[in-house]
Design goal:
The complex is a heterodimer of chains A (about 240) and B (about 425).
Chain A lengths: L3 E10 L9 E9 L3 E5 L6 H8 L7 E6 L2 E2 L5 H11 E4 L11 H11 L1 H7 L6 H11 L16 H13 L5 E5 L7 H18 L2 E5 L11 E4 H4 L2 H5 L1
Parallel strand pairs in A: 3-8, 3-9, 6-7, 7-8
Antiparallel strand pairs in A: 1-2, 1-4, 4-5
Helix pairs in contact in A: 3-4, 3-5, 3-6, 4-5, 6-7
Chain B lengths: L1 H13 L1 H34 L6 E5 L3 H10 L8 E2 H8 L4 E13 L2 E6 L3 H4 L1 E2 L3 E2 L2 E4 L11 E4 L1 H7 L6 E2 L18 E7 L10 E4 H7 L3 E2 L2 E2 L7 H4 L8 E2 L1 E6 L5 H9 L6 E4 L1 H42 L3 H9 L4 H42 L10 H32 L6
The chains are: A alpha/beta (about 240), B alpha+beta (about 425).
Chain lengths: ~240, ~425
């Protein structure tokens, strides 16, 4: 079995000024190319855990590692660079810069990460043509590519966000309730698309949702309440 | 870095309606700063170009600046008169090469009338010791048969559309008292001077004898009741001038300038003074400098206010842009990129404002320059910025960049605190 892409050990996290830890996870591994479904009620610390996985937040104790590198071992600037190189991120909504066109939005990660730019231009292509391939794969009509991203529908915007998270094949794609703004039919489409694209890129997908019906597609599912011992220690 | 500038530019373009007001206010303050500096430089230039080759100006004892302003620039109030006998005595000083009397006080449709001797056209120098040149016609010769001849400056001819042979009448004083006209003794334009860019362009020149002639039937500033002397009769009177306003003096050698100045000051029969044009101008600049500094200070304040407005607008927009900053963070931008983005936006706005203000200054000078030239005789030049202007432009730019660090720093703090989940 491949070494885990994501490894959590003895993780403890508390917000400044809080009296209790809000996250306490002893061990969690996600294998390369795997997919993890995280669910839990609002306020169970989902967004906090994503912040820890993306290296925006640092644990109070223990470690969160991506591909064997602990976020805590990196300086602030190195964390930013490491995140740019290895993590794709999809928000709930408002993922795109409304004043850039669709193509430029997809290319954004290549502007901040040389590694992803290189990967996107491997095999003799240019980042722009890789972006076009991705946009074709997510089924966005070519007439929309030069449109300002703000003019797209919510469903189209989420698909563009998926393409952006995947350009340059980052090892980890984190999606924070990306389907919550979509209706049922669009949700199915988007889920299928995201999973297929992650598989094609070999990216590990961490997907957060409060909607447990989506969990069936994933290799692993995790109810935050069940692994998170913070609730117990606080009680 | 270039990618970031591109993003900053497009983000700003997206909010152009708000930001254009900021650019406009920066442009206005730039225009003020540059405009004031341009006027300051050109006024000085014009003044120092107005007289050259004259070593001393002699007049009644008053302020040096007042005498200079009135005799050369036709600005301000009349000084006391000087007796011709006194001037002749000074002219006989062995160091004096020439003396040209000047008599002022009347006007023609707002243009000052200068009575002088025919020598004036030979002796007077302006700019880089350039002599006066007649564009058309000839100078008056000061003889009795040509008593009512006049030579006009280029602006007078242009603005009033006068040609050679034009008959004109003069007004008593500055022409503001109705009816105080020398209508009974019309003059004929016999010469038009080429443009000099000095107050000469706005002057109507007549002979000293003509000045006497038109005032024969006047006393204390009003026509004598019941006395009428026709232009023909006037020629029979003694028209030798008794008093004039001032005189220009040229020396045989400049080294004698202080000796002659002292001789004038020590003249026993009448309290007189002699001023060096350069020294009087320096004195004038000392007086004017206070006002200039106040103007510059105020426009600096305007610039500071407009930059404060810039910071306020960018800061106010920041809260709505927390989502945008989080997206940038998610695609790999570091907080320092966010700082750079905001600082670049402020810098870009300042740069635009400064460019627009510079263009505005050029347009304003092109638009109102001719009318300022006509009214005040001050030629504003459309020339490359002076070192002082470059300095002002640079100061505005640097101040804008430094001010932009404020929203930049705030965005930096916000993006550190928000991470990928902005609290909006």
């Amino acid at each position: 079995m491949n070494p885990p892409v994501i490894a959590i050990r003895q993780l403890r996290f508390a917000w400044p000024k809080a009296r209790h830890d809000c996250i306490a996870i002893d061990a969690l591994d996600v294998a390369a190319g795997g997919s993890l479904f995280l669910h839990g009620p609002s306020g169970s610390g989902k967004s906090t855990l994503l912040g820890l996985l993306a290296g925006v937040l640092l644990p109070r104790d223990g470690s969160v590692s991506l591909m064997g590198t602990s976020w805590s071992a990196l300086s602030g600037a190195r964390r930013d660079a490491f995140r740019a190189d290895h993590v794709g991120y999809v928000f709930q909504q408002f993922n795109l810069l409304p004043y850039l066109n669709v193509l430029d939005n997809v290319l954004l990660p290549c502007r901040f990460s040389t590694l992803r730019q290189e990967r996107a231009s491997a095999a003799g292509t240019s980042p722009a043509s890789t972006a076009r391939t991705l946009l074709r794969q997510i089924g966005l009509d070519e007439s929309l590519w030069r449109q300002p991203a703000g003019e797209l529908s919510v469903g189209q915007q989420q698909r563009v966000a998926a393409a952006r998270a995947l350009i340059g094949r980052p090892e980890v794609v984190i999606a924070d309730e990306p389907t919550s703004a979509l209706d049922a039919a669009l949700r199915e489409d988007f889920m299928a698309l995201l999973m297929a694209e992650c598989r094609a890129a070999g990216s590990t997908l961490v997907f957060v949702s409060h909607d447990e019906r989506l969990a069936a597609r994933f290799d692993m599912r995790l109810a935050l309440a069940s692994v998170n011992r913070a609730a117990e220690t606080a009680a | 870095m270039r990618a970031l500038l591109g993003i900053a530019g497009r983000s700003a373009w997206n909010r152009r309606s708000t930001l254009s007001l900021v650019v406009f206010s920066v442009a206005l303050s730039t225009l003020l700063l540059l405009g004031i500096e341009r006027i300051r430089t050109d006024v000085r230039e014009n003044f120092s170009q107005s007289v050259s080759g004259t070593d001393l100006i002699v007049g009644a004892r008053a302020g040096a600046v007042q005498l200079m302003l009135y005799a050369v620039f036709r600005v301000g109030g009349a000084t006391n008169n000087v007796r011709m006998t006194s001037l002749e005595a000074i002219a006989s000083h062995r160091a004096v090469a020439w003396m040209v009397p000047l008599s002022l006080g009347d006007s023609h449709r707002g243009f000052p009338v200068l009575a002088t001797s025919p020598d004036y056209f030979m002796r007077f120098r302006y700019g880089d010791r350039q002599p006066l040149v007649l564009a058309q016609g000839k100078a008056f010769d000061g003889t009795l048969e040509n008593l009512y001849d006049t030579v006009i400056g280029a602006d007078v001819a242009d603005r009033l559309g006068y040609r050679l042979g034009q008959r004109i009448t003069l007004s008593h004083g500055s022409g503001v008292i109705p009816g105080a006209e020398h209508a009974d003794k019309p003059f004929t334009v016999v010469g038009i001077l080429a443009r000099t860019g000095t107050p000469v362009d706005r002057t109507v020149h007549i002979s000293l004898e003509a000045m006497e002639a038109i005032h024969l039937d006047w006393a204390a500033g009003v026509p004598l009741p019941g006395v009428k002397i026709s232009p023909e009769e006037a020629r029979k009177y003694d028209l030798t001038p008794k008093q004039v306003t001032a005189a220009l003096i040229g020396l045989k050698s400049r080294t004698a300038v202080f000796a002659v100045q002292r001789a004038v000051a020590d003249y026993a029969d009448e309290p007189l003074m002699a001023v060096l044009p350069g020294v009087a101008l320096d004195e004038l600049w000392d007086v004017v400098a206070v006002g200039e500094r106040a103007m510059l200070g105020m426009s600096t304040m305007v610039a500071v206010v407009s930059l404060a407005g810039l910071v306020a607008v960018v800061l106010a927009g920041l809260n709505e842009r927390r989502r945008e900053l989080a997206v940038l963070r998610a695609v790999g931008a570091a907080p320092r990129h966010v700082l750079l983005l905001l600082a670049a936006e402020g810098g870009l706005l300042t740069l635009l404002g400064v460019l627009l203000g510079t263009l505005g200054t050029i347009a304003a000078i092109a638009a109102v320059g001719p009318s300022i030239q006509a009214h005040f005789g001050i030629g504003l030049r459309l020339s490359a910025p002076t070192p002082q202007q470059w300095l002002l432009l640079a100061a505005v730019l640097v101040a804008g960049l430094v001010a932009s660090l404020v929203p930049g720093w705030r965005a930096y703090r916000l993006s550190l605190a928000d991470g990928l989940s902005p609290r909006v």
